[in-house]
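In this section we walk through a basic example: taking a raw amino acid sequence and producing a predicted 3D structure, encoded as discrete structure tokens. The instruction is simple. Fold the sequence below.
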Amino acid sequence: MPGKHMNFYILLLLLFVDTAFAESIQMKPFTIDWQENVDSLVNLSFLLDAPAGKDGFILVRNGHLVKPNGERFRIWGVNFTAASCFPSKEDAPVVAEHLARFGINCVRFHFLDSNWSGSLFIDGREDTRALNPQQLDRLDYFVAELKKQGIYTNINLNVGRNYRKGDGVIDYEYLGLAKVINYFDEHVQALHKEYAKQLLTHYNPYTKSEYRHEPAIAVVELVNENSIVEAWFSDRLLGKNTNKRPGTWTDITAWYENQLTRRYNEWLKERLSSTDLKALRNMAGVKEDELIPRLTKNQFTASPKKRFHLEAAFYMELEHNYFQKMYRYLKDELEIQALIVGTSDHNHGKTGYPLLTSSSQMDIVDGHVYWQHPRYLTVPKTRRRTFSIKNTPMVNEPFNSTVIQLSRSAVAGKPYTVSETNHPFPNEFACEGIPILAAYSAFHDWDGIFFYTFEHKDPKEWNAKMPGHFEIRPDPVRMTNLAAGALMFLRGDVRSALTTTPGHTPLSRCTRAFGIHIPRIRILRPDSHHPPLSGTQRE
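The resulting token sequence is shown next.
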């Protein structure tokens, strides 16, 4: 008994000492100063081959990105979003050096066409058909400074463009980011081409070349997170939106719904015999002089397979044609030499394979996934905007991990990049995100990762606090992980899988019936030195 009492008192003493010691510790902020770290012990700029593009354009060879000499090229990148794309000439070289020290070798310029922050469009003008020369000059200088450090550029062509009255776009105030109408509205397609020409034929006086002929421009992306097939699955083609300035994922208006339905009926007449068209009318329950309505989400299950497959093929062909039209315009008419991405496989609550049939025809296949992305909410009584976010470790849910979700998008014979991924703040397990992605991206032999986002704001406004869910720049955990991940991914510390097994994606018969390409997924087999994260080898 005396021994037990003694142990009890010793335990109490230890608890008291530990508590007293903890109270004496003064917690201090751990900040990474992007302006004053020139002499930092961490300097991974040796991983970069400066200046970017010195030997020519990045190419595709044997399904991977390579330099002109055939050496493998991998992207370890970050996004710069909206106002952050336009730093002052004093800040641009400092930012570029800061990125190089962390092993960043490519910047994805996102929301260059923003309507809520810094933008290439002229503020106060009645249209979005002219570019702001001051903003262009800032972008030009930043691109040149990045190039000096060995950092390539990825230009996004259509992300946040909100059309204005002078653009001549019907219902412009009701379209938000105007997703999906680009796939069938010829005027919007013409505006996309016009903007691409203005930006990509622009002469950068600091690199002394037009963007289309600049080897430091590695990638050009057509549209961001934009799929008309996904919009169909999500009931965003109903034509019921009557709200001005709607959110990102909004329904189209009645005018566009009518145009899409008419185009669908014209498409059916071109492809079906009179007998088959009559049978389809009977399935839909409409008369000969009536338009065949398009299906809504709640009609999918009860609809005959033939009707469902026909409509799916229609949307898939719209996507395919848009990407091909834009690709040929950029490559043949503008003579762009950078590699082209169509859009990203981004909505992992629904199948991405229909989208991959068209996007995989571009130079690079791309994917987006976040671990526990915040859900944005509005409090009914106060109308105050708030959010909800989970807070659990990804390693406890391997079959739902970012690795698993991103793996579905890789296509055999094509370079694969991830242009957006993150563990959004304030996830307490964020330290797992970048190292796991770096390791398994190398194991899966992917070609690049861009973490979202380094910053949203102009560097003049950067401070030590976390401004939102996605900023990497002020976060000491993610910044230090970026450096470790750069070594792992760029230096080849993790070897790629020894065996790759291709397999066809489980697409419906309608894709074959209309000659739509079916990509082959890449399934990697681990060896004894690379045990798998559960499920990463299965598709």
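Looking at the output, two observations stand out. Residues 506-518, 523-539 have pLDDT under 50 and may be disordered. Residues 38-228+321-498 form a domain with the TIM Barrel fold (CATH 3.20.20.80). In the next section we compare this with other chains.
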